[in-house]
Amino acid sequence: MLVYIIPVVITFCASIQYDIGDHKSIWKKPIWFFLYLYLVLIIGLRFEVGGDTLNYMELYAYQENLSDWTFSFAERFQPFYSLLCALAKTIHPDFFVFQILHSAILNACLFYFFKKNTDNYFTALLVSFSFYYFYFSTEILREALAIMIFILNYDNYKKGNWVKYYLGVSIAIMFHLSALFLIVLPFIKWLRFNKFFIFIFLLSPIVFSKLSYLLGIITGVEMLTRFVVAYEDSYKYSGGFLSTIYLILRIFRYVFCPLILLFIYKVILKKGIKYEPLICLYILLGVGVYYNTIIFERFSNYITPLYMLALSDGIVYCFKRKIISLYRSTVLFCCMIFFISYSSYYMQYRLYRIWIPYYSIFNPQHVKERKLFQM
């Protein structure tokens, strides 16, 4: 547990000191580099930490070396992910080598994105710890790389450099097919948090209720069939009081939390918000989560780092206001609601145990010995 507390405490103190406090110090850059190196090592040297990590470890045994690698979409994994596996396996057959490579790439992209797009990068990192960092770095290994390609490609999206943007999308698809979702993003740049969006939002449940028909069209494309079939029956509502509570929290997480953020920015603060079209799309995808959890959560993952960056900038902005009492209480209340709704999924099935306790290759203990998945 201590290995997780260390970066959180350091990042929290740095956020107070440098982002909210605006203090200058020669230690700012060394702290940032230390956090990068620390995270690369704890994620890269983990041992059977992360639920999907176990599946990736098992399948890694069947990956080719670099000399045997071929470019193909016919295999289980997309070509650039299998290339990364082949590179790691050529260096050393142990899975931890792949983990280090993956962690170094993911953290480099994330840290660069924060540094480039906000002055409040410690707060952005702190927010990522709370909402998505460990999920990205230990669960959705392939998709996380596709997401990193997208957030680095965001400037091309923003500026309308569509040739470069779609080149980036093509690279993202080489890591995970869900990145095909990025093809449609240029067509929603007009979305804004206004009356017309509210109309679309209210209409969206009717559209998503026809989901089976839409999926039928998509599965007509051969390359997408395996992806859709794997996830189309992913959501089964089991009923019961607790299931209802968690369903409500899930919808709150994907729909009402970003709505609250947009309302605070546009109505209370009367301030523009970064990534407004994509956050609006995130809300609409959140409606889709009710009808098919995994498919629309997958798509939402691409917007999550941008949405959370807007949230972190909003937190710092509100704490810096001269009239701070109302803003601080509002921000703290919203952060509490956000945290409860985002943590509910991991509390529901006690999934926090996929990360706690932490084991590394230096003190390995197999999952079966930990009885990780026993209730």
Automatic annotation (TrEMBL):
Superkingdom: Bacteria
Keyword NADP: no
Keywords for the protein's UniProt record, in alphabetical order: Membrane, Transmembrane, Transmembrane helix
Pfam family for this entry, one: EpsG
Transmembrane regions: 31-49, 96-114, 121-153, 165-185, 197-221, 241-265, 277-296, 326-345
Listed InterPro entries: EpsG-like
Protein name: EpsG family protein
Organism per entry: Caecibacteroides pullorum
